[in-house]
Each structure stands twice: as structure tokens, then as C-alpha cells.
Design a protein that fits this description.
Layout lengths: L9 E8 L2 E10 L9 E10 L9 E6 L5 E5 L5 E8 L1 E7 L7 E8 L4 E8 L25 E7 L6 E8 L8 E2 L4 E4 L5 E3 L1 H6 L16 E13 L10 E3 L5 E3 L10 E2 L14 E3 L9 E5 L12 E4 L11 E3 L1 H10 L6 E7 H11 L3
Parallel strand pairs: 3-9, 10-23, 14-15, 15-16, 21-22
Antiparallel strand pairs: 1-2, 2-9, 3-6, 4-5, 4-7, 7-8, 10-11, 11-12, 11-13, 15-20, 15-23, 17-18, 17-19, 20-21
């Protein structure tokens, strides 16, 4: 995790999350002025793994202490800049069609702090360590994870399943079960493979493939990148986002913000380019507690995938994974951002087949 250690430190960090590798170079500068400004900034360049700069691409930063989001775009040189950021803890999200995306966390702004965060995005289906001849069933997404939610169903078309929690103390220790299985429901039509998996090795992964509007939940391994709810705050959590009435998840496949959680009030009318979205502050309380699942597919792969409160046992979802309100609240508090957490979601026969190759619990 990138973090500010002192005013002279700098570092190069490589993140791997949900199959995406992000190279982040962080340099910190401190002003020697006695007139300290109680704000700072974040800037950097966004490039493809080929070295080409990424132009006119949206960059989002969010203050974890206030939940205030700001959006900017890269210029012709791939450069972006956020200025006047109040002191606090921040995350940055960079998304681009055809590339795996994720949150860059652990960014801390103190008085006069200027963070330089360069980002390298890798195309879908590639990682820096991928080599010819890699075994097609190998999956690195559990690398570095210390918490895992395992959801299994009886088959591809089953809407009911169970969820069990596991932990480990580091990446080489074996998983330890810390909860009994609890009942959950997935998509009303069952599960469908994450298209990232089947696009790489279609012969090794038979079964339905997830796409927008199919009534299936994604099957695979996914980072849990943040939590949310109706409560104004969640003490102890580093990744909690309170949902305000205007908050939406964009599901318009033509929008540059497809799959993003946004507040339309933060946009000028031309920039809020979506025509359809899902309101997050629902009257039925399904999102009173929830977790963002890092399922980042370009259209029409599917969007707005969450763990959330169910409408009742046996009632499948439109694409998320749901459970009783008390169970969901407990898991939201458990996934607090202090240790990397992932979701493993598979039909039981696929889980048994992949358990050894994916180092599953």
C-alpha cells in the first residue's frame, strides 16, 4: 500500500488486485514555507503498459474522511492534477475501456503535501509477470489476500448458495475458516464466468459467460474494493462510503463512467453523460449495507456488482450476491480495508476443480 512515511521518502510500488497490475510511482514534496497551507495535491501521468500516454481519460479521487469526490481528466500528455485537496486520506480510481482497473489506496495528504502518482494500466488479459506457457488455470488474484469470502452454489443455474469466511496471516500460510456457512442468493439465473477468464483460455472454462442484463452474478475471484451503507460513518473502516440520496451507479453502456459510483451534483450537465443509472439510496433498504465488487468489464460485460442485503431467502438478484441484513452488516464491518479481501464465487464443481490451482481455502 502506498503511504506517506516522511517528507523525504519516495518509492516505487506495484499493486496487483483483481488481476490488474498497477505500477505506482509516488514522490512526496514538502514546502519549507512557514506559512503552511492546510491542503495538498495529487498529480501524475497515466500510461498504457506499452508506454503510450492515455489522453482525455477520467480520474477520480475520493476523500475517505468526508466521502467528497473530485473528477478530472488527463491532458494530451497523459497528465492529471488535483489541487487544493484538504488534509485527509484519499483513494484514486482510474478506468479505461479494455483495461483492468482498481483503486489506488493509502494516499495521505498532510499540509503542503504534493503526491506524484504515476499509473500504468495493463490491458485485459495481461500482467507484467505473464509468460508464454503459463498454466491456463493459474490465477494470481489471491496473491497478497488475507481475507476471503467463499460463495458456492450447487451449479451454474442455481440462485441459492452459501458464504463462508476465511483468513490467513500472510500469503504463504494456509487459510483458516472463521465462520460457519451462511445462506446467500446470487443472480436469479445463477452464475456466469468473468469474461476476463474465458477470453484468455476459453477451452479451459466451459459454462455461461457473464454479460449486462443476463440475471447472473459473476463467477471467479474479485477484489472487494470498498464498502457502503446508509450510515453517515463506520468507525474503524478505511474504505466505507456513506450513500447520499443523489448517489447512483452508472449502467449506461455508452457512458465513459460505465460502472462508476457517482453523485450527479458533482458534474456539469455535459459531463454527466449517462442516460441510465441505478439509485443507491433505495427505499427497500437492499443497499443499507453493501460491498463494491471489483468487477470491471467494458460494455457489455456487466456493471454495478455488489454484495448487499437480500429481498428474502430464495429470491435471486439481478447480478449481485445478497444475504440477510445482519449478516451483511457484520461482513461490511469485517472488510475494513486494513487487509486485502477478495470474493471467490463459483459453482461447487468448479470450485473443486480449481481449488489446487487457485490455492483456494
Amino acid at each position: 500500500m502506498a503511504s506517506r512515511q516522511d517528507e523525504d521518502r519516495h518509492g516505487i510500488h506495484v499493486f496487483c488486485a483483481n488481476g490488474m497490475w498497477i505500477l505506482v510511482v509516488i514522490l512526496l514534496f514538502s514546502s519549507g514555507s512557514v506559512f503552511a497551507d492546510n491542503s495538498g495535491g495529487i498529480s501524475g501521468t497515466v500510461r498504457e503498459s506499452s508506454g503510450a500516454v492515455i489522453q482525455d481519460n477520467a480520474i477520480v479521487t475520493r476523500n475517505l474522511d468526508t466521502s467528497v469526490q473530485q473528477t478530472t481528466k488527463t491532458n494530451a500528455q497523459g497528465f492529471y492534477s488535483f489541487t487544493g485537496l484538504p488534509v485527509g486520506r484519499y483513494v484514486i480510481e482510474v478506468r479505461r475501456s479494455g483495461f483492468k482497473t482498481d483503486l489506488i489506496t493509502g494516499l495521505v495528504i498532510d499540509s503542503n503535501t504534493e503526491l506524484h502518482v504515476d499509473v500504468v494500466l495493463w490491458a485485459l488479459g495481461t500482467t507484467p509477470s505473464e509468460a508464454p506457457g503459463q498454466y491456463p488455470l493459474d490465477d494470481p488474484k489471491l496473491s497478497g489476500a488475507q481475507k476471503v469470502l467463499v460463495v458456492t452454489t450447487s451449479g451454474w443455474n442455481a440462485a441459492g448458495g452459501t458464504l463462508t469466511r476465511y483468513v490467513r496471516f500472510d500469503s504463504i500460510n494456509s487459510w483458516q475458516r472463521i465462520s460457519d456457512p451462511i445462506p446467500v442468493v446470487v443472480g436469479a439465473n445463477g452464475l456466469g464466468w468473468d469474461p476476463n477468464i474465458t477470453s484468455l483460455h476459453p477451452d479451459a472454462f466451459s459454462g455461461p459467460v457473464k454479460h449486462e442484463g443476463d440475471g447472473r452474478s459473476p463467477a471467479g475471484v474479485f477484489q472487494l474494493k470498498g464498502t457502503f451503507g446508509y450510515a453517515d460513518s463506520l468507525p474503524g473502516s478505511l474504505i466505507y462510503m456513506p450513500l447520499t440520496p443523489p448517489t447512483v451507479c452508472v449502467n449506461d453502456q455508452t457512458s465513459r463512467y460505465y460502472g462508476w459510483i457517482e453523485n450527479p451534483a458533482n458534474f456539469r450537465p455535459p459531463d454527466a453523460d449517462w442516460k441510465s443509472s441505478e439509485h443507491m439510496r433505495r427505499s427497500d433498504d437492499l443497499y443499507r449495507w453493501g460491498i463494491f465488487v471489483s468487477y470491471d468489464m467494458p460494455p457489455p460485460g456487466g456493471s454495478c456488482i455488489f454484495l448487499h442485503v437480500w429481498d428474502g431467502p430464495g429470491k435471486g438478484t439481478v447480478g449481485g450476491t445478497a444475504m440477510a441484513s445482519g449478516d451483511m452488516e457484520e461482513i461490511v464491518k469485517w472488510v475494513d480495508g486494513r487487509k486485502r479481501a477478495v470474493l471467490v464465487q463459483l459453482p461447487q464443481p468448479e470450485y473443486d476443480r480449481l481449488k489446487e490451482h487457485w490455492f483456494l481455502p
